[in-house]
Write a structure and sequence with these properties.
This protein has three helices and three strands. With 74 residues, it is of the alpha+beta class. Strands 1-2-3 form a three-stranded antiparallel sheet. The radius of gyration is 11 Å and the shape is globular. The two termini are 20 Å apart.
Length: 74
């Protein structure tokens, strides 16, 4: 397991808020679209009851422009 394994949707959402993202609208299926308040950068976040897969979380962070170390320290 990697450093990003075992992180839930709620924890990811909480940490995205600390970086200035906020829920914007529902996305396709069980996904949500989050948008950064100042830059308008958009992130699609899966809303599942189980933990996010590490590769999925890495893709979300890449889309958001957030470094993995910064995310883990938030």
């Amino acid at each position: 397991m990697g450093r990003l394994a075992g992180i839930s949707y709620r924890e990811v959402a909480r940490r995205l808020r600390t970086f200035g993202f906020a829920f914007d609208r529902p996305g396709p299926g069980s996904h949500e679209v989050w948008r950064h308040k100042q830059t308008g950068r958009k992130v699609t976040l899966p809303h599942h009851s189980r933990d996010l897969a590490e590769a999925t979380l890495r893709a979300v962070l890449r889309e958001a422009g957030i470094d993995v170390d910064d995310f883990l320290n938030a």
